[in-house]
Every structure is written in C-alpha cells, then in structure tokens.
Design a protein that fits this description.
Blueprint lengths: L1 H6 L3 E8 L7 H14 L4 E5 L7 H4 L8 E3 L2 E3 L1 E3 L5 E5 L15 H14 L5 E7 L6 H10 L5 E5 L5
Helix pairs in contact: 4-5
Length: about 160
C-alpha cells in the first residue's frame, strides 16, 4: 500500500540489533548507538520491538510519554530537548510500564507489521530496530516486514559465555 512506502520512504538506513539470547545488552547497544549517531549529527529513530521487555523508553527517560495518531499513522515520541531521537515502543501502549505482554504469535506479528508500516518516522538517517532475545517469530516478522526497503544491516550482540 501507499502508507507502507511512504512511512519508511524517508529512512536512509535500517539497522537491526539482534542476539541469540537475552540479557546481553541489546537495548543498551541500541540506545548508545542512537545517542552516538545523534551526537554525530544524524537524525535517528528507534523501533523497540522487544514486546516482552520494552526497556528503551525507561533508558531514555520518556516512559511516561504517550503516542498520538496523525493522518499517516502513529507519531513517535521525540526524545531530549532537541527532539533528535524518534522512538516507538510497545511500552507506550501499555497501561502501566510493568504490565506483562502475553500475546501469541499472530498478534505479536501483526503488531510488529503495524509498527513497521504505521509509524510516521519522517526523514531519518538511521532507524535502529531493537529486537527481542532469541531467534523467534518476532525476528522473522520484523525482517519480512522490512525486506521491501532493502536498507538492512545488523549488529549481533554477543557475550563471552
């Protein structure tokens, strides 16, 4: 559809942050990468598709923010005084930040697809996608939804053990 083309049309590079297991620091790497790119003068967005542990809103101190609708979809939350990082996370859609998300595959996959197609990112140099731990359906859904844009790169976070 047109919305699928237009909402990511202004994004130059998409970077997935992945790992094979939890607790290795994906969200920390995603956040630090976004801050470093912003400090280098780039426009940056973060898409937090870690549906069970959306920690980036808390890391960037915007956990009390709300997501609003506009004509082209959801407006991401803009972070910092300069509003230089755009952030979309399921954490903004929960009643309370500590609510558990106990969704099965199809519902999770539909939300990820909606995050990819329905967020009005505007013009970004980089969109960083923070994924959940492991190698689950969410990763396949994310890559499938982003495949048409062919701007994909990945950072694989590992630890010594």
């Amino acid at each position: 559809t047109l919305a699928e083309r237009t909402n990511l049309a202004g994004v130059r590079h998409i970077l997935l942050v992945l790992s094979g297991k939890g607790g290795v620091g994906k969200s920390t790497i995603s956040t630090e990468l976004a801050l470093a790119l912003r400090n280098a003068g780039k426009t940056v967005g973060i898409l937090d598709v870690d549906l069970c542990g959306p920690s980036i809103p808390r890391m960037l101190r915007v956990q009390d923010s709300a997501v609003h609708q506009c004509d082209s979809g959801w407006v991401p939350v803009f972070v910092g005084q300069d509003k230089a990082i755009a952030l979309m996370s399921i954490g903004f859609l929960l009643e309370r930040p500590d609510d558990a998300v106990v969704w099965r595959g199809p519902k999770k996959n539909a939300l990820i697809k909606q995050f990819v197609t329905d967020v009005a990112w505007g013009n970004l140099d980089f969109l960083i996608v923070d994924t959940p731990p492991g190698t689950s359906d969410e990763h396949i859904s994310t890559v499938e939804a982003l495949r048409p844009y062919q701007l994909l790169g990945a950072v694989l976070v590992t630890t010594p053990q």
